[in-house]
Amino acid sequence: MNAPSPIIPHRDIVRDSAAHRAWLTDAVRRIEADFNRSADTHLIRVDLPRHPGITLYLKDESSHPTGSLKHRLARSLFLYALCNEWIGPDTCVIEASSGSTAVSEAYFARMLGLRFIAVVPATTAAPKLDAIRFEGGEIHTVDDPRTVYDVAQRLAAETGGHYIDQFTYAERATDWRGNNNIAESIFSQMAREERPIPDWVVCGAGTGGTSATIGRFIRYQRHDTRLLVADPVNSVFHRHYADHAVEELPEGCGSCIEGIGRPRVEPSFVPGVIDRMIAVDDAESIGAMRALSARLGRRVGGSTGTNLWACAKLVEEMATAGERGSIVTLLCDGGERYGCTYYDDAWLAERGIDWHRAAERVASLWR
Question: pTM for the full model?
Answer without folding.
Answer: 0.91
